Amino acid sequence: MKPEYIVKFDTDATEELTKLPQDISHRIFKKIVESKQDPHHYWLRLEGRTDYRIRVGDYRAIADLFENEKLIYVTKVGHRKTVYEEG
After folding, report:
1. Cβ-contact 4, 10 below 8 angstroms
2. What is the mean pLDDT of the chain?
3. What does the DSSP 8-state code read for residue 21?
4. 83 neighbors 76 (Cβ within 8 angstroms)
5. Which structural domain, as residue segments, surrounds residue 31?
6. How many angstroms separate the CA atoms of 62 and 13, rounded?
7. Which of 22, 28, 36 is nearest to 62 (CA)?
8. In this predicted model, which residue has the larger pLDDT, 82 or 86?
9. pLDDT of residue 87
């Protein structure tokens, strides 16, 4: 059995998650927690970037995956139209 990854949320990602409707934020959080067993099954590498995304309906979470530390560091959460914007 593979070791489970640890999930950490950036302060900005936590704020963005709490601003969303409760049902949507629960779905996003649940999928991120599910991904701890096998992150590469859930998270897709963003083209031309080093971070990854997970899709939940029209919403996305962006994260950095650290293999050595077995860490999923969620940096952004938001609607697909705006979540990919830098800055």
Report:
1. no
2. 94
3. -
4. yes
5. 6-79
6. 9
7. 28
8. 82
9. 56
For residue 45, what are the β-bridge partners?
Answer: 52
Domain count along the chain: 1
Beta strand residue intervals within the chain, DSSP E? 6-9, 44-45, 52-56, 59-66, 71-79
Q: Which two tokens stand for residue 1?
A: 């059995």
CB atoms within 10 A of CB 57: 11
Domain with residue 23: its CATH number is: 3.30.2310.20
- Give the Cα separation of 70 and 84 in Å (integer): 24
Q: Is the pLDDT of residue 86 over 90?
A: no
Q: Is residue 86 part of a domain?
A: no
Quick: pLDDT tens for 40-50: 999 999 999 99
